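Why do we care about 3D structure at all? Because function follows from shape, and shape follows, mostly, from sequence. That is the central idea of this module. The next example makes it concrete: a single protein chain, its amino acid sequence, and then its structure expressed as tokens.
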Amino acid sequence: MSGALSFGRGLLEPLWRYPQTITVLASLPLDQVGSTVANVKAARDELGLDQLESLHFFRIIVVDEEPDLRGRMLPPRLIVSAVYDGRMAEFLRALVHVAGERLRLILEHCDGFPVGGGPDDVEAWLRQHAERAKTLHIGTFRDKLDFIKEEYRLRLAIGSYVDRRHTAGDWIDGDVVAIRRDIQGFVRAQGDLPHGLRQGVPWWLRLLETLDLLRIVVMLTFLPMVLACLNVWWFGCSWWYLSWLTPMIFLLLIGLYFLVVRMYELTEGDLVTRPKAGHVAALVEEEDFGIQNQFTMLSTVRESWFRRLNLRFVLFLANGFSKHWYRRGQLAGIDTIHFARIHLIDRGRRLLFMSEFDGGWERYLFDFLGVGSFAVVPIWTNLHGCPKTRFLLSATKGFSQRFLPFTRANQRQTNVWYSAIDHLTVAEILRNAEIRAGLFGWRSRAGIEKWLQLI
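And the structure:
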């Protein structure tokens, strides 16, 4: 586990925020990169991932040796990342059991891998090399895989039933209450469809969620509060001054922060980054096979202590916004992202970004230049070669023309990518959940009419 400075995501977060993600990062000997890539190709179609009932998405990436900004060589990496339901230990145990020797074949050259060990040794090695994401976005918050699959079947069954009844002319009077009651009876007569609402979220998980939000507020206001208390104590003022002194210091610190940001933006060198010949063609070969796509980017962080610290702070804020604000199909206006997560690796010198999304690559990246700029620009502007911004938020002239080539240059080939729900978009998953809620939950006549329009 990385011990570098971090603003943290909270130890209890995986309990109330799910599905969760795990990313295993391991170093490879330089002379074993080629054989590891060959092993991945040989085993990728035989991992048995469709047997893992809790697995949403899975990927493997092999990264070759690369120099950092000071010319120091960073070791090759094998990256294994998954999005899953339930506890990490249970998921890893199931993964090791199902993938078996095929997984061992992929991991056998990684540093410290227990080649002759048993399943428990492999599971322990995976846990030891697991890294928590600094930022995680869940587009379908608390949608477990079994929920998604059974609600998809529910929507198909209801749609087929409604078509048959309309064709037979059984609902000529158009009584929406009676139609809903008829559909309920049909669904309850089917053994393989859900017969009620989803299981509710326990109160103690909602309490943990509220406490996490409180934790974020405390972390953001801690320094202003301490400075305000020192001022009151030093000058002997009444403690009620804290009510206006704390927010005033908070605003002053924000102003100072953006001044420092602007100073760095004005004094840092500017670099135009373009992809190497043939790189984009190789990436395009792995895209647009269906309605879902995946994206992996590995980029170097700008060479300064402030940029590294600033990046961790921005990722902390981004994670807070995502888990308490943008959580049902939306990320700053973008409604196509299933999951996205960001890791800082190599002691914070590189940023690893992975996501699963609907639609094509260009639409996905153009969304980040438009409605979704707030979600990405303040993060990626801390990366070496990314176009500069003004005060971290406002794009400079020519930003969009340089942003897409920069992104392509840092995009990496994903050697293995698996989706358990590759036939569903984010919008469809949310729609299917709403159909289930509307079928079994209380609805007024007007609400039933709106519900029927979803079918």
